[in-house]
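Before we proceed, please read the two lines closing this message. Let me know whether the structure tokens fit the sequence:

…
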Amino acid sequence: MTVYDRGEATDPQVVDRFEGGVGWIAHPDERGKRASHAIRGDDGVWLFDPLDVPSVDDLITDLGEVVGVAVLSNWHTRDAGVFAERYDVPIYLPEWMDRVPENVDTPIERYQGALAGSGFVVHRIDPLPGWREGVAYRESDGTLYTPDLLSTRWTVGEERVTLTLPCRLSPPRELLGDLEPDRILVGHGEGVQEAATGALADTLDGARQRLPRAILEQGPALAVGITAAML
């Protein structure tokens, strides 16, 4: 099973349906299970780290008019340029985000903190040197989105959502500890739609305790995934 399928998506999986949002996994059979999301904001629909798939425009149109494409990891350019050109909207990047501009030819809008009219506030975290990521949280409906920091793809034990391996030794409590999400959306795997605050608390509380098991079970997969992302 390949980590990231670079071919054309033929059988995407729709996930994370909720009032005002929907997600899809372009290649359900790949190990990385890259997830994309369309989320309605105050000003229109925002696409988060999207991959193109057949009929995705129907999913998006049901939510409203697209106003922007948000890339929240410097390794997640994905098909941001394709969607930005299709809908004639900018790609929105935090002012500290690098790498992405060199991979797209469409207009870019920089921002700090609040993501335009989406309702989300974005905070920076750098899990490893060269890896820059934005954590987006919308307090009005308790929606938390992280492209890589949290995932449901590489959980261990009874975890419902997992913290990326490099952050387990020192869990980012200052960033996540006070949040009370109603849902957690991630860039890899299906999101958490029920008891999300409890799932997040368990992840942070058990991060160090589960570190040895995570190294054994997920260490090789993380190394392969990072290498594949760089190709």
